[in-house]
Amino acid sequence: MHIINRWVRTVIAAAFLFGGLAPVSAPALANAGEPPVQPLAPTGGSPGYINPPASCGADQGIYSTYPNVVIPNPGLVTSTVSVGLAGVYVWEVRVYTNITHTRSADLDIALVSPAGTRVTLTTDNGGTNKNVFAGTLWSDTAGYSSNPGPVTLKTFSDNAVANYLSPEEPLSAFMGENPVGVWTLEVQDDLGSEAGVLLNWELDVTALAAVPTALKSVAAHVYDLPIPDDGTPLLVPFAMPAPLGRSDRIELITQIEHPKANDLELVLLDPEDNNDVTLAYHEGGANGNVFNGARWSDRAGATNAPGAVTDNTFLTGTVESPLAPQEPLRAAARFYETDLWTLSLIDGLNNLQTGRLLGLTAEVTSYACGPDLHLEGYGVYYSRLGSAIVEDVQVFNQGLTTTAPVYLTVTLPISGSFLSTSAPGWACTSPNVGTMGGSVLCNRPGLSMNTGATLTLQLSSPAAPQALGTFHALASTVGNNGVADCECDEVFAVAVSANKNPWDVYDAKLDLDNDPIDSGSVDDGGQDAFDGFGYLRLAIFNAGGSLLFDTVGDPVVGFGLTYAPGHRWDTTAVVLVDSIQVARSLYAPANTNWLRYTDTFTNVSGASRTVWVGWGGNLGSDGSTVTAGTSSGDGLVTPADTWAVTIEDDGGVAGDPPVAYVLRSATDTTYQGPGLSGATPITMSWPISGDDNLTHIYKLVLAPGTSASLAYFLYRGLAENTDGPEECDYYDDCVSPPPGSEVTLAQTVAAQLAAQPDFCDLTAAQIAMLANWPGVTRECRLFIPALFR
């Protein structure tokens, strides 16, 4: 429904838990003796909990009741649960309802706290559709897993339960109350034309153990900007204050002049464009200037009932304030960032009723009961061979100032050789230089609120690419107040090409992301060139054409690929696939941006074998994959091509690095063309564009006891209009190639390699075995070091 798109951020949260049966205060049970209808199972990701400040402690209780009571037609049903928690300060409330009704818009549903605060979940929403609230979790953060989140903006359909909804009035209106006592759910049928039953409901309350200290920061912005009257968004970036590096409550004050309020859509966009929070979507009626000074607050109902902007009565020239936004601002606070946020204003009616944005004030409040330590690790994921591996561990205090000592322990990766620490303000004890693993122990006098202290660690680079392990850290104050821990960073050392993007090859030592180890494929290639490419898959047939074995679903692994100086990876364990022995070697000269695979296949059976070979995998260009060049000059990769280039088409720019494939000589007959990686059969064709699962298919016929090899080059450049290579910010060598430059370079290199393939490091006998390069001669380029000539 929004003109500004929402990218739903799915957050995995705790599963629904049903607590003990709480006391029921409701009319007599309907259909007595029958078991209550169980709630429908939610689908999709659940809205996550709002993390309380660690320094305050928290107690959570989930209270369920099963009244199974008919809703009068018309009339009101109430049902209660009694809450007993150790906490004294409500932090978060979520409500689950299982209510059947043949016309959902007849229903008004509200929750009343022991203090008498009444929060409206819904009034007259759901249309004529049946049972849309028969399994709904009401949460202020529902918009992060359900688009759109607010019940007032949802599109409903018959018997389709709205699993997650933001209520009409924010549940964070209860924040700060004492949770102990009787909570009441009110369900009213205000039309009386249809039937319904309150089957069961559940209250989920999190309360802090102590009343926190509130720390508020304010940022005021003055504008004089016209709001277009043609549906064009007025997008206004603004700075949100950050009192403690986090936010627990956000309130906004808008100064908007407009003669007709319900022309407007007011939406708050977060810095990452992952979510939006709707303040008002065509609300306020035909009244003018009702938002010119309005405070948007989740707790508006306490002083300006009814609080919800969707329920308020407006008058021209009268500013309604405070107003509860259509979607809780608590949703924005949950993923708070200090980068620039954006206010979007859209006048979508084009009726010559124009307005202006005059000002915007943001108030951000954080809560703390003491020091609230947080840990972050900042390392280089793809550390370059030959460069020291550096990890920064920062302890940040998001709570109140502590003068007591702060302790930090960092456990080093078990394969990392310790070099040094740099720790301004810390007193540290470190392992001896050259120690593998171990811990660094540090302490400092204290930390002020909203400040951090960093420890920098260095490990020496290993001789070969490998996974070194993970940095772990633990921080605490005296008495363990504000304990924080993190599995900060996993460390990998990788070889790099001439343009400094990594060759993160899955060999016998490098296992990235738990993908198939020792396959010889490239994980990322830097700047998301690949999502695992270079896998080898086989289909083996007998002389009669019957399939004997295939590895289409799983790539060949277990080569024992071992790195050697000069960017080589060689087989130490020949793999037997049915009756075919497979060996693989990789060669990636440091002064080039290509990697050459050489795969050798030996028939150890006593009969002829036909082997279909698939070399490929998954490209980082995803659904934007297009062909950007072929040797035949068209946009279609065919068996006639000797090379091809693909890119991620980002509006005519290579958004990911261009990838080139140098496949064969012009006289080769083994290459069958492109296919879908992992598809069955292995001969399946590949689309012209749009699919990132690309494999190149070859066909070999092997007599008993004979061998043949295939060689193919994989070129990977730099992304265009983007700083690169990978990790360039750390190594201070960023470049941003202009549009088209890297694509042209990829095409040029591919054509050169196809005309003069680099096999200088191979023997004459090895070259003679290359089935897809018949008649090629051994040419040594001047730039190849003498060691490999």
Can you walk through the features of this model?
The protein is mostly beta strands. It has four helices and 43 strands. Strands 32, 33, 34, 35, 36, 38, 39, 40 and 43 form a nine-stranded antiparallel beta sheet that branches. The model is unreliable at 1-44 and 782-789 (pLDDT under 50).
User: How many helix segments?
Assistant: 4
Number of strands: 43
Structural class: mainly beta
Strand content: 35-45%
Shape verdict: globular
What low-confidence regions span 5 or more consecutive residues with pLDDT below 50?
1-44, 782-789
Brief description of this entry?
The chain has four helices and 43 strands.
Descriptive tags:
single chain; 789 residues; 4 helices; 43 strands; disordered C terminus
Q: Layout of helices and strands, plus pairs?
A:
Layout: E1 58-65, E2 69-71, E3 75-83, E4 89-101, E5 107-112, E6 118-123, E7 134-138, E8 164-165, E9 181-189, E10 196-208, E11 213-227, E12 234-238, E13 249-257, E14 264-269, E15 276-281, E16 292-296, H1 330-334, E17 341-347, E18 355-368, E19 373-379, E20 382-384, E21 389-397, E22 406-411, E23 417-422, E24 427-429, E25 439-444, E26 451-460, E27 466-477, E28 484-496, E29 502-503, E30 530-542, E31 547-550, E32 562-564, E33 568-570, E34 575-577, E35 580-587, E36 594-603, E37 609-619, E38 625-630, E39 643-648, E40 659-662, E41 671-676, E42 693-702, E43 707-716, H2 728-731, H3 741-755, H4 764-768
Parallel strand pairs: 7-8, 20-28
Antiparallel strand pairs: 1-10, 2-10, 3-9, 4-7, 4-10, 5-6, 5-9, 11-18, 12-17, 13-16, 13-18, 14-15, 14-17, 19-21, 21-26, 22-25, 22-27, 23-26, 24-25, 27-28, 28-29, 30-31, 30-37, 32-33, 33-35, 34-35, 35-36, 36-43, 37-42, 38-39, 39-40, 40-43, 41-42
